Structure formats: structure tokens, C-alpha cells
């Protein structure tokens, strides 16, 4: 999954970042990034061409983000 990081500042900054791995690995990657840069929003894009696999990837990502929000 590729993500574009948006910071709320007077200068719009977009940085391309990739999250790769299991749900737990991606969850740790997102948490680490949040600690380091304090982002407000992630724009997610996936280059998985199998539609079913892409939906599954997004479901796992949502679960990881939801778990982070509830910690």
C-alpha cells in the first residue's frame, strides 16, 4: 500500500511512503510514522490489480488503523 502524507501547515507537503507487510507490520509502520511526523491524514493508494485481493488489503488496513485509534 502506498500512502501520501499530508501535513496541516501553511505549506502543503506530500510525501510518498510505502507500507508493506502483514496487518501487524503495517500497523507498527503507521504508528512509528505517526510518532515521528505527527500526520493528520493519509491518502491511500494500492496497486493490486486483483480486485478481491485489493479489497482484502484495504480491509486489513482499516482494521490496523481502527486498532491504532482505539489504543
Distance linking N and C termini = 22 Å
Rg over C-alpha atoms, rounded to the nearest angstrom? 12 Å
| Helix and strand element order | EEHEH
What does the main sheet amount to? 3 strands, antiparallel
Number of helical regions? 2
Order of strands across the widest beta sheet? Answer: 2-1-3
Average of pLDDT: 82
Structure class: alpha+beta
The helix fraction, in percent, is 40-55%
Shape: globular
Weakly predicted, low-confidence segments: none
β content, as a range?
A: 15-25%
Count the E strands: 3
Short description:
With 71 residues, the chain is α+β, with helices and mostly antiparallel strands. Helices cover 48% and strands 21% of the residues.
Characterise this structure:
It is a single chain. The protein is α+β, with helices and mostly antiparallel strands and 71 residues long. The chain has 2 helices and 3 strands; from the N terminus they run E-E-H-E-H. The protein has helices at residues 23-37, 51-69, and strands spanning 2-6, 14-18, 41-45. Strands 2-1-3 form a 3-stranded antiparallel β-sheet, with no helix packed on it. Helix 1 (23-37) crosses helix 2 (51-69). The protein is globular.
Any descriptors?
single chain; 71 residues; alpha+beta; three-stranded antiparallel β-sheet; 3 strands; 21% strand
SSE layout and pairing:
Layout (H helix, E strand, L loop, with lengths): L1 E5 L7 E5 L4 H15 L3 E5 L5 H19 L2
Antiparallel strand pairs: 1-2, 1-3
Helix pairs in contact: 1-2
Amino acid at each position: 500500500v502506498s500512502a501520501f502524507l499530508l501535513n496541516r501547515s501553511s505549506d502543503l507537503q506530500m510525501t510518498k511512503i510505502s507500507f508493506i507487510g502483514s496487518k501487524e507490520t503495517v500497523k507498527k509502520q503507521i504508528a512509528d510514522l505517526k510518532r515521528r511526523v505527527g500526520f493528520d491524514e493519509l491518502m491511500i493508494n494500492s496497486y493490486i490489480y486483483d480486485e478481491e485481493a485489493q479489497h482484502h488489503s484495504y480491509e486489513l488496513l482499516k482494521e490496523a488503523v481502527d486498532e491504532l485509534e482505539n489504543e
